[in-house]
């Protein structure tokens, strides 16, 4: 992973704003992935989520909890599709070191914190 990928993140715009559904696009190298996830978020908010709002209100009338739910669904759908709809492997970054580098390898402070 490059430094750009290590620093990458998903961040929504302000909840209950006109762009509450939108992810902020950083200047880092993950814009293509961000756009794919954004498409899944919009699809979920418009067509899947159960809400009293209709039309474009479905995109704007969302709070922080709904943003998190939409992101979780979008990531799950994307990972499931990438695994051919048969499996998905998720790696989480922990604060504690989970594995030590084998002999001859240098620690990069990123890989050592991955938990599968």
Mind sketching the topology for me?
Blueprint: H1 3-6, H2 31-48, H3 57-60, H4 64-82, E1 92-93, E2 114-115
Helix pairs in contact: 2-4
EC number: 3.4.19.12
Protein name: Ubiquitin carboxyl-terminal hydrolase MINDY
Enzyme class: hydrolase
Tell me what portion of residues adopts beta-strand conformation.
under 5%
Number of helices: 4
Radius of gyration: 17 Å
Query: What does the main sheet amount to?
Result: 2 strands, antiparallel
Tally the structural domains: 2
Helix content: 25-40%
Order of helices and strands: HHHHEE
- Overall pLDDT metric: 84
Got a strand count? 2
Give me the secondary-structure category: mainly alpha
Low-pLDDT segments, ≥5 res: none
Q: What global shape is seen?
A: elongated
In the sheet with the most strands, the strands line up as: 1-2
Distance between the termini: 16 Å
Short description:
This protein is mainly alpha-helical. The chain has helices at residues 3-6, 31-48, 57-60, 64-82; strands at residues 92-93, 114-115. A two-stranded antiparallel ribbon has the order 1-2.
Architecture overview:
The chain has 4 helices and 2 strands. With 116 residues, it is mainly alpha-helical. The protein folds into 2 domains: 3-85, no CATH class; 86-116, no CATH class. It has a two-stranded antiparallel ribbon with strand order 1-2. The longest helix is centred in the middle third of the chain and has 19 residues, at 64-82. 9% of the residues are buried. The model has no long low-confidence stretch (mean pLDDT 84). Residues 1-115 form the Deubiquitinating enzyme MINDY-3/4 conserved domain. It is an enzyme of class 3 (hydrolase). Its EC number is 3.4.19.12.
């Amino acid at each position: 992973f490059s430094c750009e990928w290590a620093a990458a993140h998903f961040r929504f715009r302000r909840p209950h704003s006109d762009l509450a559904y939108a992810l902020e696009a950083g200047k880092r190298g993950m814009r293509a992935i961000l756009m794919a996830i954004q498409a899944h978020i919009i699809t979920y908010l418009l067509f899947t989520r159960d809400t009293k709002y209709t039309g474009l209100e479905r995109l704007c009338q969302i709070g922080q909890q709904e943003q998190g739910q939409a992101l979780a669904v979008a990531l799950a759908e994307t990972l499931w599709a990438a695994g051919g709809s048969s499996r998905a492997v998720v790696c989480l970054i922990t604060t504690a070191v989970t594995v030590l580098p084998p002999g001859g390898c240098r620690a990069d402070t990123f890989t050592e914190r991955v938990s599968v």
